[in-house]
Amino acid sequence: MEKIRVNISILGKEYSIVSQVDPEYIKKAAEYLDMKMREVSQTYPNITEAKIAVLAALNITDELFQARNLQPSGGEYEKKIVELTRKLSEAL
């Protein structure tokens, strides 16, 4: 797969990303990061961009961890499937 250059903007600064990843995916990820960094910037208007980036990264990491914790593990899925199968068998 060939590498493609994608131009993105984060906090008003332009960046050029070279990747094999779908350009629309990169743009959506950049838009999300820009949004999160703007939220931090509005909450803490007097901190540096580096600190804004770190706080935004921590917020995004927290979202990721929460999303992972909400999803049952593979073993939990199996237990639920077995239980639902048992209930269905009893009902039939």
Describe the fold and architecture.
It is a single chain. 66% of the residues lie in helices and 15% in strands. It is α+β, with helices and mostly antiparallel strands and 92 residues long. A two-stranded antiparallel sheet has the order 1-2. The longest helix is centred in the middle third of the chain and has 22 residues, at 49-70. It is elongated and about 60 Å long. The termini are far apart.
Summarize the structure.
The protein is of the alpha+beta class.
What is the helix tally?
A: 3
Distance, first to last CA: 52 Å
Biggest sheet character: 2 strands, antiparallel
Q: Segments where pLDDT lies below 50 for 5+ residues?
A: none
Biggest sheet strand order reads: 1-2
- Please indicate the count of domains: 1
Strand content: 15-25%
Order of helices and strands: EEHHH
Tertiary shape: elongated
The tally of beta strands, per DSSP, is: 2
Helix coverage percent: 55-70%
The radius of gyration computed from the alpha-carbon positions, rounded to a whole number of angstroms, is 21 Å
> Which structural class best describes the helix and strand composition?
alpha+beta
